[in-house]
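With this grant's support, we have settled on a layout for protein records. A representative record follows, to show the layout.
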Amino acid sequence: MSVRSALMTAAALIALSATPTLAADAPAGHPFAEAQAKQDPFFWLEEVEGQKALEWGKAHNDKTFTRLKNDPRFETIRAEAERVLTARDRIAYGNLEGGKVDNFWQDQTHVRGIWRRATLDSYKAADTEWDTILDIDKLSADEGKNWVYKGHNCFGTDANRCLVYLSDGGKDAVVVREFDVATKSFVKDGFQTVESKQTLDWMDKDTLLVATDFGPGTMTDSGYARQVRLWKRGTDLAAAPLVLEVGVKDVWARPWGIHRPEGSTILLQRGPTFFTEEWHQLTPDGKVVKLALPLGVDMKGVMNGDLIVAMRDDWQVAGKTLKKGDLVAVPLAQAAAGKVETVDVIYSPGETAAIQGVGIAKDAIYLDLLDNVVGRLVSVRKGASGWTQAEITLPANGSLNIVSTDANSTDVLVNYTNFLQPDTLYIMENGGTPQAIKSLPARFDAANLTAEQRFAVSKDGTRVPYFIVHKKDMKLDGNNPTLLYGYGGFEIALTPAYMSVFGKAWLEQGGAYVVANIRGGGEFGPRWHQAALKANRQRAFDDFQAVAEDLIKSKVTKPARLGIQGGSNGGLLTGVTMTQRPDLFGAVIVAVPLLDMMRYHTMLAGASWMDEYGDPEKADERAWISRYSPYQNIRKDVKYPEAFVYTSTKDDRVHPGHARKFVAKLESQGHKVMYYENMEGGHSAAANLKQRAEVTALQVVYLTQKLIDR
């Protein structure tokens, strides 16, 4: 996996993060937010590691643990969740790399985890013979550190020299150290950087492209690197020559080294906003050339001289109209010369479809598609007559995800799953017929369960799809405990996924589970996302509330038995929904959330999300943000359901101050609320599988108490 792939995977939770700072240390130039801070009696809770704030968090943990952990069901649920999460018969998902398969594995023995490799033949076998490359538990013990593994980025066809990313306690900020796979050791006097939010990639075996914190003035207002420098082995990083510098108001600067059999391409990205990209090429002779592309693109890679680009906006070029959502091929040489004269449409989704994933192998491009939120897989190849498509036969009515492709291989790994069918991993050797090589055992009894897709009608008449999983003999009497999950942001689609832990903990108790595919997500491509941006954000909340109302109207459930859950941007969703329609719900889970939308842009990486939410410093944008910002819209005379809010001290992506202040304000007005703060764990609020099991058990016990016991 390239460093870009790893980073963009992390971005799916919202965005990458900055090095943690106090909100009070945010860049100057935010007069409205600063005025808000002075008037905010709970501003002190934004001091991430402040003694008073930590004591406040620990006191709340004690109260929450007393109630939830002392529930006689807690330990049973926690132990079962841990058993499932750490089971040795899980699928060991791997990346095709260096002619082998890489995997990162955690279990009861390897709590922090091990990075390991196997040959492809061994990986296909039932009993894979793994070779451990790096043991994170041992490394942490040897160095006296709380290391959390954040991935690696290897160079060369043998993938022998790698950059390893290590986080202190789960933060997104990492240290990077060069590693030799052959000797299974860190390279003495090799490449190494200090902790920072940073992006590195290989130019060649002795040269890195580095975007990191180079000192005062080298970071954007969003907390990302402004500079990309060229770092030669054995030289001082601080003196490395500059190849790209972006503005302080831009979101970031990033390098991307693409190495394929036909040659290497070095790209540099300026990110004016979270959803726009300006691309440059670092040519072999050392020149930096701006590519003739519009800003509304999502670069996917390079293949045989073509830039592979997904369109976020329409583009009139070369006598064609390229539509948002299309995947296109643009000749790199033409883009570098300043004028695109030919362009090919590789794939154009229909009105109900969207491209969810793009995997570029040695000889083909693989697309996992959504059509009415159901997965399909297509391969495309360029021949003498242009690009040709081929549908790949795999199970229907579920999710299909490209697990891994490799630029030096014609093999592909693909996964299939749905809500009730355990995952199956397929390999397509040499691009051939998919063959199942690994399957996840059933984790719960699904014989009496069913999953179906329904549609609700939102406030403006838009049909909003949702999935519901329930017992086949469910009575429509309004008494079914139901959990509604949503996200609705950043063009991220929610698709059917096997409910390994929640299946037993919730469905077997008789609970129903619902996933809402609301606007703001990527279920129908860029148009579905852009329909709920900025001034139109309320549409996402309306869609979510419409699904809740549909569940009540159809007598699946009633408000006293309906709970909602969401994390990160989904935490904003549930926070808004709780404050706007408290009458609809009996339980609310608000996880690692954004909640103070008047100050979010000053807190950690918040400024990078203004393309999604808007800028509170602008009066017209502040007006519509203020109408939904949960923290500002708490009212003393409103009866709210008792929410369960949780976050992590080590979350350097979404500031823990959001959750802390929300809880403190609710309590100050006499509202009941439960709060949990994991003192490590990063944006997932769990640094390892054992912690994830505990967080799961806390949520299930809370939901059981609120929706089933009553």
The first helix runs from residue 3 to 11. The two ends are 48 Å apart (CA to CA). The first strand starts at residue 95 and ends at 97.
